[in-house]
Structures are given as C-alpha cells and as structure tokens.
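Moderator note: this is an archived Q&A kept for reference. The question asked for a predicted structure of one protein chain; the sequence and the answer are reproduced below.
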Amino acid sequence: METTNEDQDLELDPQLEGDRRPRTRKNGRGENIPDVVIRRLPIYARTLEYLLAEGMVHVSSEELGDRIEVSAAQIRRDLAYFGDFGKQGKGYNVEFLLTQIKAILQLQHDWNVALVGVGDLGRALARYDGFARSGFRVAALFDHSARKQGQRVGPLVIQGMDALPAVVRELDIAIALIAVPAAAAQEVADLLVENGVRAILNYAPTVVKVPRHVSIRHIDPIVALQSMTYYLSSTDEC
C-alpha cells in the first residue's frame, strides 16, 4: 500500500498522540489500517451528508475529492481498506456509502460523554449542540471546584470528581472531554482511564499520556494559531 506525504505528516505530528505512534487496527484481510485513514473517514461522512442534502444520488471519487481537497486515488485507497463500495462508471451511492462509513465509525447509536472541567471553555462545550446532532451526548459534568459543584449548565448539574467513577459506570461512558488547566490534565486523564474511559478529547494545553488501549486527541487552538503565523510573513510570498 502506497503511503502519501500527507499520511507521513499526520502520523509524525507530536500533537496528535503525545510521544507515541498513532494506533492502527487490522481489517478483515489482516491489513493494518493507518490512523490517518480513520481520521479522514468523518470528513468523508460529513461531505456525503452535504451531498445527500443537496439531492445527489451518486458521487465519483473525483467529485468527492474536489469537495475536500483529497485526491480521488487517496479516497479509493482509504475506502478499499473496508470493502468495495463503488461501481464502475457510476461511482458511489451517496446514501449507501454514508451508511457504511457510519457503521465503520460506530455512529449508528448515540454515545454518552463526560466533560471534566467546567470553566469558560467547559461551559461552552457543554452548551454546544453540535455534539448531540452528531451522536455525542454530553451526559455528565465534573469539576474539582467546590464552588462550581451543584451549579447547572443547561439540564446538567456539575458534580465533584468523587462522583465520577459511579456516574461513568452508571451511564456507560466510554468517551470524555478534558477542559481543565494543564497542571491537572494528566491526573484527570488517569482517573478517567482507571474508570473505564477509552477515548479522550483533550482541550487542556498540554500533551497527556494514556495507555495504548486508549484513544486520545489533543485539541490546542493556540498551537494551531502559532503554527499558522509562520506563513504570515510579509517578506515571503508563494
């Protein structure tokens, strides 16, 4: 399987997975599926939803690629890990391919999510209805601050950290968002993992380490902005 420069760049980004290599899983043929392929699948699904809303029935890999600036060959390689979804001369059935990708990503049902850290960012995340529209229900809020505990954010009451183990088990929570200060992020991640959380989206401005069986993504807008300012030099023009 050919590896593109795009694949290599994403796999080596230290902000994505801390100090470890990205996880891979095998498909039914025993091939390792690169993590970067899994990262592209939600982008394909979102674009297919737009196409479906526009009334498109079929889409070619070229048309799909034009929408998201990914080559048609890359799209075909990515999808080939999971099966043969297209037809020669007709491309992909939009609704069918969307259904298949959602099944691959286990998006056929809603997921309960815990949010730890209910400061300004945490409150904004708790109120963001885009999570629920995409199948992720923020079901529990936790914070170290005794002052915040008992307060409501929408329908949810902020609970103390001591309540986390029981609530995670009761609500079958496997996914968590971390929005705490950098100094507290590793401790929070350890507690979440200890209580069965297997996927973490970390908004704290630090890289958090987790065991290999846990998926983690680091979302740091400051790092993203700092990496873009490099390209704003007035002395260099492309």
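Archived answer notes: The radius of gyration is 20 Å.
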